[in-house]
Each structure stands twice: as C-alpha cells, then as structure tokens.
Write a structure and sequence with these properties.
β5 and β6 (124-132) form a beta hairpin. This protein is globular. By secondary structure, the protein is an alpha+beta fold. It contains 7 helices and 6 strands; from the N terminus they run ααββαβαβααββα. It has one domain: GAF domain (Beta-Lactamase), CATH 3.30.450. The longest helix is centred in the last third of the chain and has 24 residues, at 142-165. The protein has a 6-stranded antiparallel beta sheet, with helices on both faces.
Length: 167
Amino acid sequence: MLILQEITFLISNQASLQQVFKKSLEGIVKGVGFERAMLSLISPDRSHYSARLVLGERSSLLQDYFNFPINEEHDIFSKVLMEGSELLIEDISEAGWRQVTREDFLEKCGANSLIIASLRLGSKAIGFIYADNGVSHQPISAEQYRGFIQFVAQARLAIQVGAASRR
C-alpha cells in the first residue's frame, strides 16, 4: 500500500515518468513479490524494443537479453506491445509458446512463467512491463497477478496524466 501511495504522490506532483516507472517496478518486486521486473520501451523509430529499467534478483540477465526488432508474427513480446494487452504465460516451454518466443529465452532468462502488460499513449505503443520469478522458478500466484496489474495501472495512469498536462 505504501508504494501505491508513493506512486499516487508522484503522479499528482507531476514527477517524471521515469520516477513513476521505477517506483512501479519497485512495487512489483518489493510489494507484490516478483523476483524480477522490467520496463521495456519501443525505439523512437518504432523498429525495436529494449530493456530500460530492471529491478530484482539477477535482473541484469533481462537487461542484457531484451533488445529485439518488433516482429508481431514470431515474438509474443512484440505482439503484446503492439496490440495493447496483458498476458500471463504459465509455462513458456509449452509448444504454442515456443513458436512465438526466441529459442534461447528460457536458457538466457530462466523464467518458466512470466507476465507482460503493454504501455500505450492512446493507440500508440510505447513499451511494456514484464515480471517473473525466474530465479526460484515459482509459478505466478493469483495475488501476484492482481498486484502486477495494479502497478501497471498506476504506470498507465501516469502516462495519461503526463500527456494531458503537456496539452
């Protein structure tokens, strides 16, 4: 609750989006209990996405891994990013997920289950937030799912408030 209050304070005082995003990731890791969280943003030319902020145990693996061209047909991260949705993957090794994730994802990141939610400004994709328990390999609980969505909602609110205040 304290982290949600801090985010509300940041938004109401027109703090930078980076401050709000960092606090949202902190909430996902420290408040909700995910082992790692990441903010990935789309490039200015809209051709690729890359990790910008990471928090948690062995989060540098995510920082080093996530830098890919956008490809909605063969990359689930691109698809969520561009379609503006949320996605919980409970077992990345299932055949259907293997077709839309890179072959080395499990080896490089170590996450069997993960959750992703897009960030948008209106209809324009700007990035996504990702979380996993890739160190312990624990499944994502219903409480973690709800908490993740709550912190993503705060990040989305900050984007909308920031855009409205610039008009």
